[in-house]
Write a structure and sequence with these properties.
134 residues; binds heme C
Length: 134
């Protein structure tokens, strides 16, 4: 490889927003921050810890299928309304963590996701890939 080519490759590798970001960063991790997920979720907490009000996302792949997550990230309000086993499971964990009796409540995630933050199908796939590693 000619020297000039090497310089160009080097510039391509290191250009972009932050030092290593375009080539080495995990796109799912970046999207998780960009799309407000990180404001509410702690990826290091287990799903039994709702601190302050959102479940930790560690091991989330054991709690939901990819298909369920696809629907949830697209339109949490719609999934919430079905009161399916995934929703019931989240709610059971929520009230156990609070130490209170279950009662009807709105989805907190649906106040933002599917409303002011709408995800494309492509973004959802990238996020699921990321969630699957937690
Ligand atoms: C406004 C705070 C908020 C934002 C923003 C938010 N979530 Fe949530 N998320 C929640 C809450 C709270 C729940 C539990 C159900 C509920 O009350 O909506 C939840 C549930 C989940 C679950 C199921 C977790 C489990 O243990 O069953 C996943 C996965 C998830 N969110 C991923 C995401 C991703 C990915 C994003 C970003 C695109 C995101 N959330 C953005 C608050 C939020």
């Amino acid at each position: 490889m000619k020297f000039s080519h090497r310089v160009i490759c080097f510039l391509l590798l290191f250009s972009g927003s932050g030092a290593f970001s375009p080539v080495f960063a995990d796109p799912g991790k970046a999207l998780f921050k960009e799309k407000a997920c990180a404001l509410c979720h702690n990826i290091n907490n287990p799903g039994t810890v709702f601190s302050p009000v959102c479940p930790g996302l560690q091991g989330v792949r054991h709690r939901h299928s990819q298909d369920w997550l696809r629907q949830w990230l697209k339109d949490p309000a719609a999934v919430w309304a079905t009161d399916d086993t995934g929703v019931r499971d989240m709610n059971a964990r929520y009230f156990r963590y609070r130490g209170s009796q279950p009662k009807p409540r709105e989805s907190f995630m649906a106040t933002i996701i599917g409303k002011s933050v709408v995800l494309t199908d492509e973004e959802i796939e990238v996020l699921i890939e990321y969630l699957w590693k937690l």
